[in-house]
Amino acid sequence: MTETKLKKYLDTVEKSPKQIAAAVSGLPERVLRYKPAPDKWSIHEILGHLADVEIVYAYRLRQILADKKPVIAPMDQDDWTRNLGHLETPPAELIALYGLNRHANLRLLQRLKPGDLEKSAYHPETKQDFSVAQLIERMAKHGASHLEQIERLKKEVGRASDLGPRTSDKNLRPH
Fold this sequence. Notes:
- The protein has one domain (about 5-170): dinb family like domain (Four Helix Bundle (Hemerythrin (Met), subunit A), Up-down Bundle), CATH 1.20.120.
- It is about 65% helix and about 5% strand.
- The protein has seven helices and two strands.
- Strands 1-2 form a two-stranded antiparallel sheet.
- α1 (about 5-25) packs antiparallel against α5, α1 packs parallel to α6 (about 130-165) and α6 crosses α7.
- The longest helix has about 30 residues, at about 130-165.
């Protein structure tokens, strides 16, 4: 990874929590909890997922940098979202957790030494090594991907509301 690319990724990593917070600021509960389908996430659940994954990134980053021959523990993001009570946690708290953990991860990433980018851990799901450079790239793309998802959901809930209660009112109720 070039120094220019690293800087670009780290800038993106730093901006994500603020962008997510701005995207959900002032949204009513019905929008935060809208699910386009029973097996799809609401905005509120996406916020929980972002908070969770930042903790996973924190652990994986520290494993790769500090441990000898680390193996990444797989996670099932749907199970985490389903079983960790995200909907019982206020959205502002989830955003704060995401932002605080992202800040701590960013500080660690800013202290990396040149050789650290190539350090890696074995990822049993992909059956490949996963490097710090790849983790940074994933972090940069992850928030942006969910920001796009949040914006799509905001538009979709607006369209569903315009259609009236006959078509998708069941998806507007809290789950």
